[in-house]
Amino acid sequence: MERYPSAIMDSKALPLAKPHMKAALKLAWMALEDEHQRAAIEVAYLNLANFQDGLGDKAVNIMLSADAYPGEVATTLGAALPWMNKSMEEMKSLKVELDAFKRSQETH
Question: In this structure, is residue 39 part of a structural domain?
């Protein structure tokens, strides 16, 4: 994510399978008491949506240069839009999961 902050990448770029990443991030969240550190973990959890199965080796990046031609903009956005939609839908689901997880931790 640091190299491609606005990109959607293949889930194979993650160090672990996505379900294991979720579990690791939840464990890290539980181990921390600092709210700023927990917030960073929450951002990382939601950003898992930017890793999608089947994308392949080339990241989908929506960053355009300031002097991009209209045709270049249309081509870039046309290729990125399906992946952006998929990522956004997953981010919504991850938010629901994360909120449920946090509520479950309030009782502990």
Answer: yes
